[in-house]
Amino acid sequence: MQELLSLTGQLLKLKKAAAAGALIALTLLSGCSSSFNSSKKESAPMLLNDRQAFIDRGVVVELPAPVFKKELSARQLLTAEYKTGSASLVTLLKTTLNSLSLVGLSPAGIKLFSAQYNGEGIRVERFVKLDSLPPVNQVVLDIMLGLGPAAELEGILPADYEILDDSHKRILSHKGRTVYIITYQNNDSRQLPVCIENTVFDYKIVLNNI
Asked: How confident is the model over 59-90, as pLDDT tens digits?
């Protein structure tokens, strides 16, 4: 009986630790959301639906259609860096030829959310309260800017915005002003970015395959 009570106590401690890990992840990630929301306050346009996102301060675009040349899946450690600190979570990314799905887990393995995008809209399931996280449509835009072919992405850009690809980077700019810097792991593959930096909303997302 004593051994059973001891085991039960250990299991309760593990559950409390996992819950605390999820709470810490959400608390830290709220800093990234606050950075985005404070920058967005000056934005006059409003988003009309979940297929729109801010590509720049006050500039709304339609999300690119999820068109991919081939299917891929990746498990990555995502670290968001922003003015007041940084936070990490695990993401499971999967694409088909015409859809994208993303699952977010806390570092302790607790499922936080899942999102599916098929071009018609974004379906989101939240498994814990996620008011502090950035809008999912903004996350989808970042992913599409990193994965999508430049020719497809240019179709959604407003006038005077352009995409420049070099050997290992993709830069989105407006009249010479850099908006996004997306870095890839090597020179011969643009499948998965390792860093997505938004200079307008002042955050950086670092991705490591695990």
From this structure: 999 999 998 888 889 999 999 888 888 888 89
Using an 8 Å Cβ cutoff, are 121 and 49 in contact? Answer: yes
Q: What are phi and psi of 141, to 5 degrees?
A: -60, -45
Instruction: Tell me if 207 sits within 8 A of 201, measured CB to CB.
Output: no
| DSSP 8-state class, residue 184 | E
Bridge partner list, 87: 80
Tokens 């970042």 locate to 142
Residue 191 pLDDT greater than 60, yes or no: yes
Rounded CA separation 91/75 (Å): 6
Encode 85-109: b = buried (16+ Cβ within 10 Å), e = exposed: eebbbbbebebeeeebbbbbbbebe
Q: Tens digits of per-residue pLDDT, 128-154?
A: 875 556 678 888 999 999 988 888 899
Contact 113, 59 (CB under 8 A): no
Secondary structure (DSSP) of 52-63: EEEEETTEEEEP
Q: How wide is the angle at C-alpha 139 spanned by C-alphas 138 and 143, nearest 5°?
A: 115
How many Å apart are CA 103 and CA 92, to the nearest integer? 5
Tokens of 3: 């051994």
Tokens of 179: 């908006």
Contacting residues for 86 by C-beta, under 8 A, at least 6 apart: 28, 79, 80
What's the pTM value of the predicted model, to 2 decimals?
A: 0.77
Bridge partners for 118 per DSSP: none
